[in-house]
Amino acid sequence: MIQMKNVSKIYTIGNEELYALNRATLTINDGEFVAIIGPSGSGKSTLMNIIGCLDTADDGKYLLDGQAIEDYTEDELTRIRNFKIGFVFQNFNLLPKNTALENVELPLIYQGISRKECRERAENALIRMGLSERMDHRPSELSGGQQQRVAIARAIVTSPSLILADEPTGNLDHKTGVEILELFKELHANGNTIVLITHDDGIAQKAERRLRILDGQVTEDTAS
Ligand code: ADP
Ligand code: ADP
Description:
It comes from Christensenella tenuis. By secondary structure, this protein is an alpha/beta fold.
């Protein structure tokens, strides 16, 4: 699904060049659950943004489903970001004035699906996340763990083949983080490909494979 060869991303700050990614090479196959682990500043978010087609590499090759990323049209990339990939972020990124149900419906409304089907699918996603009693709550009325479960419901409601999660447990206490990881494991068991970014070794151990990033390079690839 994801193939990267010698991918570099360079930021120019003043007259200094900073390699956020420095010839990173990796392959992630359909159906894998991979944790990308590394310290702060090692290039994890940059890597996730490139994998998720939110940003582009300055050098190297990125193939998504066998096709070079530069060969996709802008429209195709928008479709990939909206329908093929489900994003989960550290700070949940929920709309504060909308209910859990409305937040989860949103990606489907963008797809032009009927109101009735949007509602049904959003309700089902929230039920899967154990939030049947919380659908009409606003984010401020939910705990951090519940907010992240709403965000995961929003990520899966479009049935994406790939879920990209950037430090999804970073704002949660340990116990809640472990519960969120169990949800990702269930999604994986149901066939989703999951790429999870973390700086937490304990969290990374729950994935079936770990890629360690250091100074913009993949330095270790271990399967459990
Ligand atoms: P991580 O997610 O592992 O913390 P990042 O991918 O966010 O790492 O960052 C990798 C390196 O690139 C860091 O040194 C960071 O400061 C730098 N960096 C990231 N984004 C930018 C940017 N927009 N402009 C300049 N430098 C950046
Ligand atoms: P961090 O990795 O510092 O915790 P976030 O997880 O909030 O930051 O975001 C990671 C990256 O994804 C950032 O570069 C940000 O610009 C981008 N991003 C955040 N939210 C969205 C979104 N809703 N859609 C697209 N890109 C986003």
